[in-house]
Amino acid sequence: MRADGVRNRRRVIDAAKLAFAAEGLSVPVAEIARRAGVGTGTVSRHFPTKEALCEAIVLEQVEALLGQARTLGFLDYLDHLVGVAAEHRGLAETLTGAGFDVGAAAARTGLDLDGAEAALLTAAQRRGEVRPDVTMADVKALIAGCVARESGGPDPAARARMVAMMKAGLRALDMNS
Predict the structure, then answer these.
(1) CB-CB neighbours of 6 under 10 Å
(2) 118-176, pLDDT tens digit by residue?
(3) Which of 79, 90, 107, 177 is the most exposed place for a label (fewest CB within 10 A)?
(4) Which CATH number fits domain 1-48: 2.60.120.280, 3.30.70.270, 3.30.390.10, 1.10.10.60?
(5) Which residue windows are coiled coil (predicted)?
(6) Which segments within the chain are labelled E, that is strand?
């Protein structure tokens, strides 16, 4: 790809990232093109569908999340994930299933976020930090609830409360108390 093509692709991704983070996935492609300073044809050449553009952005975010999954414990990772989703409305929408399958997109590129998250959960359960009856479906539902709490706008205090409640509910029960 020519240097100007690489530059334009990056401009489109950066503009879409900002738009999706602030406004969600419903931002029209024409608006993304305007913000990137390119025509809609340029966007279409690099990303034939809006889903392809969403996928490129989400996959960058998934790569960053995978890096965090490798360094954080399970409960700290969930705290991080909810914080990232709260700051990036488009990612929050994808995490809660708004018409974009993050797992399938990641799997097509060899990024296994679902597997990394499941491994974190299993390791935390083996260490006795998380209840043994918790499943990844449970965890995803809890994350969706935390993210949904801020659908009306950023509310860090509410986010902190929701994450604290989620963590408390996930912690292994002490049968001796």
Answers:
(1) 11
(2) 999 999 999 999 999 999 999 989 988 888 888 777 889 999 999 999 999 999 876 44
(3) 177
(4) 1.10.10.60
(5) none
(6) none
